[in-house]
Specification:
The protein has twelve helices and three strands. It is mainly alpha-helical. The chain has a three-stranded antiparallel beta sheet with strand order 2-1-3. Helix 3 crosses helix 5. The two termini are about 20 Å apart.
Length: about 375
């Protein structure tokens, strides 16, 4: 994309960058000029395929495109094995568990993870990297550095405890939500006062409507817990509301999951490689926009009410979990499941919606 940018991109009418265009034209000429009996393969790499000149992509030139996606669990396990070869690992380290805990990580992220774990172990004068060091490194990468020296008022700390407890309980009770791995009220990063970490049981490429509804309910559960316990809400749910609203709007306007809107995509997307249009506005009327807003609000309110109902039914557990967080600051998955009366199972596999015999194709 440095030298193969489209000749119509970033140029004014009747002008352009002559030097860059001459370079591109020379490359095109050279690629056409190779003899057929010469075993030469020309490779190019880019992370911005949408801006390449179409002449580069026609048959006979860069006509075979290989998308290098984020690694799946097996790929992450293989990458971890490579980067851990030079690190002395403890007997309790299971790379398969680490691979399960790092969905979405690429090779550089995994290399950084093991490096962070090695640094943490070295600071404590350990002879080898233990699983606890890797766990702390994952938390540091995902949520940021611990800020134990950040002074949090007792009232705020109590609100955070109930907020995170609400997320965790609804995540465990919701049928299709990812299981909870850890709950923490230790301040991290710039503004995070706590977090609830969920881990998918496997790599997912398709998500169905009931699962998205459960994700929204889990996001709304922190605010719901505050209302159930204190009768008031705080600013702590700001990011949760933002993420929940984004999911709901995509369900309605992009994924065709609203009965009122129907199976239509109203969001403008130029390419699978691109982000949504900056204004977020599709080609639809003002009346349709009002229906979209109403449907988004309906999904959010329904999920919020469902979270409220779950937490009221589990009010005693909510209180116990919040107190446990205030005492320990961190609650692990096994402790949460014991508190909720769920049989511990390291291979927890949540139920998925039943799928009929209809072929489904992943579009992105």
């Amino acid at each position: 994309d440095a030298i193969g940018r489209s000749r119509s991109t970033g140029t004014s009418f009747g002008g352009g960058n002559d030097e860059r265009e001459q370079t591109l034209n020379q490359i095109l000429t050279e690629m056409d000029g190779f003899e057929a009996d010469v075993a030469v393969i020309v490779l190019g790499a880019t992370n911005r395929p949408e801006i390449l000149d179409q002449a580069l992509l026609r048959p006979g030139r860069f006509d075979r495109q290989v998308v290098v996606d984020r690694p799946d669990m097996a790929g992450r396990l293989a990458i971890l094995a490579v980067h851990s070869a030079a690190i002395k690992l403890g007997e309790d380290v299971e790379l398969l568990t680490v691979a399960r805990r790092t969905p979405g990580f690429v090779g550089a992220d995994l290399a950084n993870l093991l490096n962070e774990a090695a640094l943490l172990a070295a600071r404590e004068d350990k002879e080898e990297v233990e699983m606890v060091d890797i766990e702390h490194a994952i938390d540091r990468i995902i949520a940021g550095l611990e800020k134990k020296n950040r002074l949090v008022h007792d009232t705020e700390r109590e609100i955070v405890a109930y907020h995170e407890a609400g997320h965790a309980i609804v995540a465990e009770r919701a049928q299709y939500a990812d299981p909870v791995h850890k709950i923490s009220i230790i301040p991290r990063g710039v503004a995070a006062l706590g977090y609830t970490q969920q881990l998918p049981t496997d790599d997912r490429y398709l998500i169905q409507r009931p699962e998205l509804n459960d994700r929204i309910a889990v996001l709304m559960a922190g605010r719901a817990a505050e209302e159930v316990v204190f009768g008031e809400i705080s600013t702590g749910a700001g990011n949760d509301l933002e993420r929940a609203t984004e999911i709901a709007r995509r369900m309605v306007a992009e994924l065709g999951m609203s009965s009122r809107i129907g199976p239509v995509n109203l969001m403008r997307r130029q390419s699978p490689f691109l982000q949504p249009a900056t204004d977020g506005q599709g080609e639809y009327s003002e009346a349709t926009a009002q229906v979209i807003d109403a449907e988004v609000q309906r999904l959010l309110v329904e999920a919020y009410n469902r979270a409220i109902e779950m937490l009221r039914n589990d009010r005693a557990i909510l209180e116990q979990l919040a107190r446990m967080l205030l005492d320990k600051e961190v609650v692990e998955r096994s402790e949460l499941r014991e508190l909720m009366g769920v049989t511990p199972d390291t291979n927890d596999d949540r139920a998925r919606p039943e799928v009929g015999h209809v072929p489904v194709t992943a579009a992105e």
